[in-house]
Amino acid sequence: MSRGSRRARMRRALGARSGLAAGALLLAVGSSACAHGSDAAGIAILTYDEAMAEYRTATEQLKLAPGGTWVESPTVLQAVDENGQPNFYEAGVGAQQADFQWFCSWAAAVVGSSGAAREAAMQHLGTFHELGVWEKMDDNGHQLFTTMLADADLGDFSGLTGYLSANCR
User: Which pTM value belongs to this model?
Assistant: First the structure.
C-alpha cells in the first residue's frame, strides 16, 4: 500500500467531523503514517485497537456532564478503511476523541440549561484549554473554540449550537 493512500485514510479518519470543526480538527491533529510503529518524523503510529485503548483510558479520567454517556467507539476511529485495509492513527488521537466528546457533553449542558446549571457547565467548558487536545490544536482550532466560549459567555450560544449539530452525537 502506498504512503499516499495511508495518509488519505488518516486524513479521512481524522477529518470525519463535519461543519464548524472539520478544518480545525484536521489541521489540529492531522498526521501521516508510514506503517505501524512510527513515521519518518518519529511520531508514534497506533493500530485501531491501540487507539481505542487510548480512548478508553482517557474516558476514565474525564467526567461528562450529568446524564452524559461515552460512545462505545468514536466514529473517527475505524478499524479498516472502505477497502478493508487497516487504519492507523497518530498516538494521542484516541485521547483527543475523548476530549472532544467531553466538550460535546458540556456544550450540550450549556445549551440545554439555564441559570446556575448553565453557569456550572460553562465553568467546565472553560477548562477545555487544559485538556491534551488543546496542545495538539493549531491557532485556527484555538481561535474556533476560544470564540465559541467567549460568545457563550456573552449569551450567544449559536457557535456551541452549530458545533453540537455538526460534530456531536
Answer: 0.77
46's enclosing H/E stretch is strand 44-47
- Report d(CA 157, CA 107) in Å as an integer: 9
Residues 120 and 132: their CA atoms lie apart, in Å, by: 22
Q: Which residues contact 158 (CB under 8 A, 6 or more apart)?
A: 151
Residue with cell string 478499524: 79
Contact 13, 77 (CB under 8 A): yes
Residues 29/77, Cβ–Cβ less than 8 Å? no
Q: Calculate the alpha carbon distances from 94 to 53, 111, 121, 123 in Å.
A: 7, 26, 24, 24
Summary mean pLDDT of the chain = 83
- Residues above pLDDT 70, as percent of the chain: 76
Spatial separation of the C-alpha atoms in residues 151 and 90, rounded to whole Å: 32
Q: pLDDT digits over 46-83, tens only?
A: 999 999 999 999 999 999 999 999 999 998 999 999 99
CA–CA dist 13, 9 (Å, integer): 6
Helix (H, G, I), strand (E, B), or coil: what is residue 36? coil
Q: SS3 for 42? A: coil
CB atoms closer than 10 angstroms to residue 161: 16
As given in the structure block, the three cell numbers for residue 143 are 481561535
Q: Taking a C-beta distance cutoff of 8 angstroms, is the pair 121, 106 a contact?
A: yes
